[in-house]
UniProtKB/TrEMBL annotation:
Annotated protein name in UniProt: FAD-dependent oxidoreductase
Alphabetized InterPro entries for the sequence: FAD/NAD-bd_sf
UniProt xrefs under PANTHER family: DEHYDROGENASE-RELATED, PHYTOENE DEHYDROGENASE
Pfam families per the UniProt record, alphabetical: NAD_binding_8
Length: 477
C-alpha cells in the first residue's frame, strides 16, 4: 500500500494526513509534543477547570475553509459557538466600532460610514466562498471565478492606510485597521488591505466562531477522522533529520522553512535551501493568559458582548504601533488582541472565574516582558480590570518558540506578510509546496495561503503529493 509520513500534527499537518488517508494512502503522523494540535492546542494553565487556547482562537477562516467545511467534522465532535458580537474596537471617548456577522447590523452601528462599509464588503461577503476557493489555492492556477478575483484584486493590493480613507469616522477607520493589523506588517505597505478585507468578509459570511471545548477540538476532530480512515498518530517523536523519518512514498513536513532546513539538510537543492534561508519571519507575539473573577469592566458595553476585542485606540495609533514592531522597537502602546472565548463557550470557565486570552504584537524575538503593557491597554478601556485578576501566565517570544518550534522568534503567523511573501511563500515556484526533493513537501502556514486553522496549506500540499503519486503509477483515488 502507498505510504505517507506527515511530520507535525497542527491543523495543516492533520488536514494533509486526512486528505491522503481519504485518498487511499496509508498515513503515519509524527508529532514532537505529547499533545497533537500545534497552534490549535488548548487546556488548563494555572487555574483548574479553565480552558485556554495556546495560540489560534477565533476561526472565521476555519469555518469558511473550502476544505474543512466539506469534512463534516461535526460528526467527530466539533461544535462551533458564536458570541453576540464578533469583534469590538473601543476608542478613548467611550465609543467603539462593532463587527457583527450581519453586514447590515454592522453598517447601522457605523453611522455615516455604514453605506461605505456595505459597499466595500457586500460583494466580498456574499461571494466569499467563490473568492476563497481561488485565493486559498497556490498562486499559479487557473481561476475558477475570474470576475470575482478581478473585482477583489485592486482593493487587496492597496495599502491599508489608503483603504482606510474610504471611512470618515474614527470608529470606522479603527474597526478596519484593527482587522488589517492581523497581517503583522506596516499598514502603509502595498497589499496590507488584503488580510483585513478577507477576514472581515469571512466574518460577515460566517462570523468569528470559537470551537467548543477549545481550539483543540478542531484537530481532535480531524485526528478522529484520520484514525477512522486507517491513519496513525505517534506523539513524543521529534524528527531532527531526514534519516529519522520512516520509509515512505511521500513525506509532508508541517514545519517552517527553518525546520525544513534542519531536517532535510544537504538533501535540499541549493536554490531551495537559499530561498528557505532568506525566508522572512514576522514580528512576534507576547501572550498573556488571565484568569479573572467576573467579567471585564468595559467602559463600552458592546465590548462586554464581543468574542474578540482589539485594543489599539485610533487608526493612526495602530499604524504607528505596527511600524514600530516591524522596525524592531517595542511601542509603549502595542496592538493587543483580547479574546473572551468563554462568552460563546461557557464550558471554558469554572463558575465565576473565566479564562481571558490576550497577546500583543512585539518585535521579532523581543526579549522583554510585555505583561504590564498589555494590562495597561486593557485598563485603558476597562478601568478596574487589575482588581479582577486571579492568575496570570505570560509567554514571551522565546517561550512561544520553545512550546512550538514553528513559532520562531514568537512569529505565530508562519512568516512575514511582505509584498512578495503574502502570495509567494515560502519561495517563488510553480509548486510552492515542493521542497525540490521528489516526494517531499512543505505543508505548514509558511506555504500558501498562510496563517489560520483552515487546513488549506495541508490540503494543497497533499494535492501536490497525490499528483506525484499518480505520476509514479501509485494506486490512489
Amino acid at each position: 500500500m502507498t505510504k505517507a509520513v506527515v511530520v507535525g500534527s497542527g491543523p495543516n499537518g492533520l488536514a494533509a494526513a486526512v486528505h491522503l488517508a481519504r485518498s487511499g494512502v496509508d498515513v503515519q503522523v509524527l508529532e514532537a509534543a505529547d499533545q497533537i494540535g500545534g497552534g490549535t492546542r488548548s487546556g488548563p494553565i494555572d487555574v483548574p477547570g479553565l480552558i485556554h487556547d495556546h495560540c489560534s482562537a477565533f476561526h472565521p477562516m476555519g469555518i469558511g475553509s473550502p476544505y474543512l467545511s466539506k469534512l463534516d467534522l461535526e460528526r467527530y465532535g466539533l461544535i462551533w459557538r458564536w458570541a453576540e458580537v464578533d469583534c469590538a474596537h473601543p476608542l478613548d471617548n467611550g465609543d467603539a466600532g462593532v463587527l457583527y456577522r450581519s453586514l447590515e447590523q454592522t453598517a447601522a452601528g457605523l453611522g455615516a460610514d455604514g453605506p461605505r462599509w456595505q459597499r466595500m464588503f457586500g460583494d466580498l461577503s456574499t461571494g466569499f466562498d467563490a473568492l476563497a476557493s481561488d485565493l486559498m489555492r497556490p498562486i499559479v492556477n487557473v481561476p475558477r471565478h475570474p470576475l470575482r478575483l478581478a473585482a477583489f484584486g485592486p482593493r487587496a493590493l492597496l495599502p491599508a492606510t489608503v483603504t482606510a480613507k474610504l471611512w470618515k469616522t474614527d470608529k470606522g477607520k479603527a474597526l478596519f485597521g484593527g482587522v488589517a493589523a492581523h497581517a503583522f506588517y506596516p499598514l502603509n505597505r502595498p497589499a496590507t488591505s488584503a488580510v483585513g478585507l478577507m477576514i472581515t468578509a469571512a466574518g460577515h459570511r460566517y462570523g468569528w466562531p470559537v470551537a467548543e471545548g477549545g481550539s483543540r477540538s478542531i484537530t481532535d476532530a480531524m485526528a478522529a477522522m484520520l484514525l477512522d480512515h486507517g491513519g496513525k498518530i505517534d506523539t513524543g517523536i521529534r524528527v531532527r533529520t531526514a534519516s529519522e523519518i520512516p520509509d515512505a512514498d511521500v513525506v509532508l513536513l508541517d514545519v517552517n522553512p527553518e525546520g525544513a532546513l534542519e531536517i532535510l539538510g544537504d538533501r535540499l537543492p541549493g536554490r531551495v535551501a537559499r530561498a528557505y534561508r532568506k525566508f522572512k519571519q514576522a514580528p512576534g507575539a507576547f501572550k498573556v493568559d488571565f484568569a479573572i473573577e467576573g467579567h471585564v469592566p468595559w467602559t463600552n458595553p458592546d465590548c462586554a458582548r464581543a468574542g474578540t476585542v482589539h485594543l489599539a485606540g485610533s487608526f493612526d495609533e495602530i499604524v504607528a504601533a505596527e511600524r514600530e514592531t516591524n522596525s524592531g522597537r517595542m511601542p509603549d502602546r502595542p496592538f493587543v488582541l483580547l479574546g473572551q472565548q468563554y462568552l460563546a463557550d461557557p464550558t471554558r470557565s469554572a463558575g465565576n472565574v473565566h479564562p481571558l486570552y490576550a497577546y500583543a504584537h512585539v518585535p521579532h524575538g523581543y526579549a522583554g516582558d510585555a505583561t504590564e503593557a498589555i494590562i495597561r491597554q486593557i485598563e485603558r478601556f476597562a478601568p478596574g480590570f487589575r482588581d479582577q485578576i486571579v492568575a496570570t501566565s505570560s509567554s514571551g517570544t522565546a517561550d512561544l518558540a520553545q512550546d512550538n518550534p514553528n513559532q520562531v522568534g514568537g512569529d505565530i503567523i508562519g512568516g512575514a506578510n511582505t509584498e512578495l511573501q503574502v502570495v509567494l511563500r515560502p519561495r517563488v515556484a510553480v509548486d510552492p509546496y515542493s521542497t525540490g526533493i521528489a516526494g517531499t513537501y512543505l505543508c505548514s502556514a509558511s506555504t500558501p495561503p498562510g496563517a489560520g486553522a483552515h487546513g488549506m496549506c495541508g490540503y494543497n500540499a497533499a494535492e501536490s503529493a497525490l499528483k506525484y503519486l499518480r505520476r509514479k503509477g501509485a494506486e490512489v483515488l
